[in-house]
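Thread: zinc ion complex, take 2
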Amino acid sequence: MGKRARRRRREAAAKPAAAAKPTILQFPHGEDPVLHVEIAPDTTPEDLALVHRYWDLTTYGWRYKVRELGSTLTVLNTVTARSRAFLLSVECSLCGEPVGIANRSAGTVLAGPALSEPRATGLCPDCQDHHTAAKEQQQRLAAEHAVLEKQKAQEAEKELRARVTAWTTREREVPCDSRTVNGNAELILLLALAERARAGRSKPLPALSSLENGWTGDLERDAKALSSLREQGLLVVDSQSPLSAFQLGDSGGLMYVPAEVLWNLKLDPDATIDLVANTCVRRATATGQQSATEIAALARLVTTLEATHVIDYLNSLLTKKYGYPPAPEAREVELFDTIVDGITGGYTAGQMIAIVWRAADSAAGWKERNARMGPAEASSATVTMVRKKLDDARERRQPVPEYEPPRWMAVPAALGAARQVLEAVEGPRRRDRIMACGQCDVNGFFSQEVDGREVASRCLHIPTARRSDDDHLPADLG
Ligand SMILES: [Zn+2]
Ligand SMILES: [Zn+2]
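Output below.
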């Protein structure tokens, strides 16, 4: 207890209560009071008596129970309104003055039932006020800081949005002078995007990351093809793309994430499809080693797409229908090679779906008959079975039916476009087409007179009736 403080309180208590001065009481009566009470000067004698009894402390504790004094609420209201109490036994932890207490229980918490054993530290009313004000100031500053930060973030966002709008507008306004499409994945993706745009008209094309299996089933390949199409001037980034798809580089340059932005075709959908069709015709009729290599790469890409689709179907079948794990990772390459073997050997993806369905069915039947065989072994056995079923089908030369994948299966978004492009580019070189066509030689060429010279051109085997009104467009792309 602060000596100075105690003396001051005692001196205050010794003075006679003058008009407009508070009534001072100290408890317990005697040598060493621990509680100092000040009662407002204009308090009625009844209230003064009540407040006195409320705070009356003996060396053993409170003289009266609160309920002996009247209704608890009335007592506490009167005490709060008419008196201020201080603990002489507990000093303010900041200035050493006696701490204030609002009621008896606050005193008990700080100094025990007789208010004589300090148990906790507290603050005097002045320091409490000061502390509260400081805390409020701190909170106000923190709130102001947060508002400032938010404004800064909003401004940065606004600036980024303005940069994006300016950039996308600039890109959109550059005229398109592309006469052909470079790259196989690019050709397929552009057709898929144009068909999507034709179905949805004014809406921007979706972000790659929002498609379940991407466009071709390989996000990295798709992202690369999308940027390449933008560089070729055939696609533009949509200005309404989410801001999270952009960032400013160290030197202030605007960068975009190809998988996250929305897209628009540079040309309208029909003109884009025409461009794809013309590119296909040019590739189909090109001669020389380079074009042959390019066509082989296209065929490999489309076969990969088909095989990935069949494997996705098989894995869905294993996990969803049978409750097995997907085909083991260690045998993925083997499974892929088997399916590619089937497709390049002449089976369609639909027929391969029938073959893997039979394989899974056989493996499941085998597991039924072998109690010791677990689900993982059944999945692995399915891979073996796919090879066996494929070889069987070939050996017996039995026709394999075409199965449609079930509706719940997500088909790679560009699979249909890939089939059309392959058909348009590679179709004219297929032996059966050449044999069935009456207009070309055994190698698929026909002769034409150009500037007085005989020139051999690759035939597209388009029936004469169609050729007159729809010059060179392959039927599927028209
Ligand atoms: Zn203080
Ligand atoms: Zn022909």
